[in-house]
Amino acid sequence: MFTLVGVGLGDEKDITVKGLEAVKAADVVFLEAYTSYLINSSADKLTEYYGKPVTIADRDAVESGSVLDDAKDKSVVLLVVGDVFGATTHSDLIVRCHEASIKSVVIHNASIINAVGCCGLQLYRFGQVLSLCFWTETWRPDSYYDRLLTNRKTGVHTLLLLDIKVKEQSDENLARGRKIYEPPRYMSIAQAIDQLQQVEETRKGGAINDDTVYIGMARIGSATQQVVAGTRKELEAIDFGEPLHSLIVAGDIHECEAEHVRLFAINNDSIKTSR
Length: 275
Hints:
Layout: E1 2-6, H1 17-25, E2 28-32, H2 43-50, E3 55-57, H3 59-64, E4 76-80, H4 88-99, E5 104-107, H5 112-115, E6 130-132, H6 144-154, E7 158-162, E8 164-165, H7 171-176, E9 185-186, H8 189-203, E10 214-218, E11 226-230, H9 232-235, E12 245-249, H10 255-261
Parallel strand pairs: 1-4, 1-5, 2-3, 2-4, 6-7
Antiparallel strand pairs: 7-12, 8-9, 10-11, 10-12
């Protein structure tokens, strides 16, 4: 049997009762460690708290499906930061289980997708969720801009998920087959806003401007959670500290949302309502 268990956003204690029961009953427990990471925890802390050895599953282990190797004869749990379907890779594992006649179970938890409601914007007024990735000298994707523009034209909010690079190889090491990995990198709110500004200057579609309201969110779900709302210029001066970071480009802010959003505003006058 293969069980996907969401462990939430903060630390080892965010797991649900049902999820913890699945871990304790498992023969093998993995922690998926490339699509996200627990802000205030580690595999060692999970092992200590859950009373069960927890092994890191890197990108190769997850994408190759090797985490399923023992699932036909044993109970295997894959712990996933946030909710289990926050990454398409995990959906693929469920499909593989079906194809291999392996019983699969899913135990959900909170994710950034719903936790963003803490900033005061109402969840049902969000549009398409977008991802920003690190640019390189030869690769500067901006296809997300069209969807951002669509969201903005319809007045809905946009959650931007910011890139993380864990256990990545340089082009040279990859080409030479050398198992040498780059240091982990996590996109910051400042980097995300800068990238958006560069794309806007190139595309000139009017998706963002100097009055656009951004909400920077850092370490959501942890004791050091940070939420700040303001314009690009206002957020440039903010140190959001350690990862993980997320960014919201606000659409039309309803008056019912504005009162809550202003709790996090640098300047209340920047938070204008649509009506």
